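User: Could you check the structure of this?
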Amino acid sequence: MLMSANLEPVDNENKPITTDSVAAEFALTCEAEAAILCLRGDWQLESVFPAFSSLRQELQHHQPTSLGFDFEQLGHWDSSLTSFLYQLQLFCEETGITVDQANVPDSIIKLRDLATAVPLHKRPEEKAQTPWERFNPQRQFREIYQHTETSLSFTGEVGVALMRFVTGRANTRRVDFINFIYQAGPNALGIIALTSFLVGMILAYLGAAQLAQFGAEIYVADLVAVGMLREMGALMAAVVMAGRTGAAYAAQLGTMQTNDEIDAIITLGISPIEFLVLPRMLALIVIMPLLVLYANVIGMIGGAIVAAGMGVSLTQFFVQVQSVFTPTLLGIGIIKSVAFATLIALAGCRAGIQCGRSSAAVGQATTEAVVRSIVYLIIADAAFNILFQKLGI
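Assistant: Sure, the predicted structure tokens are below.
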């Protein structure tokens, strides 16, 4: 309680005030079950004053039932005296000692009331959960229902914002859209190239071990081409973007939520979905197909290097890739990339918009965005594969 206070001394007899500091001390006088606390000297932060523990020991020794005050010899004082008296008040409440405040100066009472006007924040006690409460199916279904409800609500708001964007009524700035394209595109080329190159090599090594038994090493090119174009190019690029861009979206929006910037945008009458979420999602949807095409090319180069070590020349490899390549095969990867980009943006922006208002909440939102993005990607990829199989594609 280091608060500014009235530094005028209490002097009922109009005694002259000297500028020399007088040592702070107290004296406890007990008569029967009543005690009088006399405070002397200057009780200020820059001076040395007695610790409350010494007064507590004397009160515990004498065990009075009531306590009064004598401030006749009190000099200059500040919030250090108020803090001392506040500790005394709490101790008296705990031990049942009645405090007589008749002789306490009004200035001290006002400063104490000002300091204690707002009660101390107490964290609610966490009730220990039994194993049944922790794994209660009803609770699990309730959490799933709440998560589904909030997800559908957020998706609906994004859909409405997208319709307003199409009709030219959305508060979406072009400069934000271009900036997010640059963040999600050129800045991600390095990590996309590394992962795609290694994935292409892994596919080639896996196929080579089996095809070499039949002398069909040339078909390594078919395996790498189909694997990258249909599956691994889009999936690996999406996983990288989920950990890179999705997490960035959640951290950016979560920090804005913590700093009350999103509330300020709402106060101005601007939809945060249109102003913050929509440009991020559209930028990722535009750039993801290009990143997938880039990942496909790099992955095939990695597979060609492995095939070259098996006696398949680069010319043979790419001629074989050309023979298996079809627009449908390429279109499957593009369709997946658009869907994956939408899921990543929705997961990241939703975690950021619904973030709490603390630094810990921002970290939790970032983690939640990455985990949910990857889960969404795996579920969507499985659904696409089942759908394409049923359609004979």
